[in-house]
Amino acid sequence: MRLLLALAVAVFLAAASCARRPPGGAPVFPGAPVVLISIDTLRSDHLPFYGYRGVETPALSALRTDSVLFERAYAQVPLTLPSHVSVFTGLLPAAHGIHDNLGYSLKPGVPTLAELARKAGYRTGGAVSAFVLAGSTGVSRGFDFWDDSVEPTQAHQAAGLIQRPGSRTEEALARWIGAGGKGPLLAFLHVYEPHAPYEPPEPYRSRYAASPYDGEIAAADAVVGSFVAFLKEKGIYDEALVVFFSDHGEGLGEHGEDEHGVFLYRASLQVPLLLKLPRGRYAGTTVADPVQLTDLFTTVGEALALPGTPRIEGNVSLAALAAGGKAPDRRIFGETFFPRTHFGWKELASALDGRWHTIDAPEPEFYDLAADPGEVANLAGTKPGPFRSMRIELEKARAAFESPGAIGEEEKKKLASLGYLSTGAPTDGELPDPKREIGVLRLLREATARSREGHATEAISLLEQVLKRNPRMVDVWELEAKLLLEAGRTEEALAARKKTVELAPAATIHLLAVADLSLRLGRPDEAIRNAELARERGDGAASEMLARAYLAKGDLDRAEAEARAGLDWPRGRKKALLALAHVEVRRGRDAKALEYLDQLIGDAGPGAVPVGAHYLRADIFARSNRLEETEQELLEELRLYPTLIDAHLGLALCYASRNRMADAKQIVRDMVAKLGTAEAYDRAARAFTFYGDLPAADALRREGRKRFPSDPRLRSVG
Length: 718
Fold this sequence. Notes:
By secondary structure, the chain is an alpha/beta fold.
């Protein structure tokens, strides 16, 4: 019986996937709600409805049942920010101006989907899960509401790793939708899972232990399921035009690329795409014609009959294709400047159609996607028929390289605070082919893995090999500084961080990182010099750094003045409030400090509280012997920032003061197991010494010395 049932289900699914598209013109749904759902870094061939069997996605599979599935959809660029801007503008990066996640901004005058919808009476709102989709880049143009409250979990964390769980993003967008307002809505939800690092929460971590990437897909599916359930509860779903897509794929080791950004192979460009039309029109059907993400702008604009929707050459309405229309003969173009701006390798461009894919590189590539979907056999040397015509068309369409520093001076100052304006990598002369240099990324990945396993010395050795080959890679100097700091080699860490300033002087994030390290080394004057330079170059976040430096010097009046100056900088306001709270604590005015902290937490919203805020509240409560409140604040700090050593030790001390010594010691042991850094071993050993447990302290120091033999903090025993 079970076999018969399984066969019946298989027949039904096969019939649904092969359903014919009904004839007729493109449908129009004026005033329909619009919901755009983006799951970052999601390969289409890792979803069940594209034939994959390695992961379960009940929410997305249910959405597919209600939608039109596009078998072959392609991104224009394998990077988060430029790809999403292409969706919102219908344009290639050369036209909208954003070629990378950092260092570019949306060109003035380029109309966006949100702008057109807002002019037509829509209320527009979006919530994103990644720092690189900060509204200041222009990606939020036209949105009334844009929640980009994504905070670093570590000091000067790489921009691409600054993210928040998709569940928090979904909650933020649901609150905005639930608040209501006049007019229909256009809502955009961005989920960063399954972007690296692949660290799915439970139960998906255990369920997909062999494939954490799939585990993150399952976690993202749960977020979509919650969101769709909310839309149904509010009566929005049935009447809505819902688009589900990903901004790009993931290499997963193919062609030597583990993640994305460098190459333009199908693994990075092909994405899932579902279009759910109002009232289930064409549900369950499939479109085989190749389509591109820029088509979404045209699709939504025409389906809603938005006034002023421009006709963009090369774009088509996906709704028209779903209604039985035929896609025009066209080439779909892709680009990536990432190899050049980050590594000094040649940038790449590509063109593909239903069968052929050509990649313009120093060593040209040409693939038959029908016979060779993995793009293993390069046919460029045999020069098949379409090769010449595609190369000519690609040459005409290819964008000239635009350096991140080519933007205007004022915009440069604004974007400098967000990250790299230039990595300092060579960008002229004859540049190497990325496919010949990709092994460098494997060394970087191995170094990162070694670091996570607690082998900082080995990781640093690998990075030195990379820097010997190319000493102008800012990304690598930044990572080396982080590892040197973890290994207790603080002076070397500061020298490595200063190298990032030398190579990318316009990127003020590096100046502030040098200031932060100087402060950690007890050199507030050096911190002030670097922070002042950052402020001179237009980074308002420098005020908060200056406040901390003057606080370290004991100049409370100057610290307060700098913190108040930081209140005017939108991205630095929360940290400025935290600095003001620290000033008031130093003045002995705990009640006033709590007022600033309450304001900070109220303004920040869930998940956007800066590191240290709940810890400071805990400190204030502890000094008033309000131990239960102290414990709750420390637990919240650790929930938000699980790598903060002070919060672990503070919680342990809180338990010890309440005669819960076993719990206190366990907290310390768990901290060492979780973090595995030299500082964690050192601080844990000191804690056990304080508790009077000298054997445990000695054991921790011995274990720490084995992992970090050069760290002077771990040399003494007892």
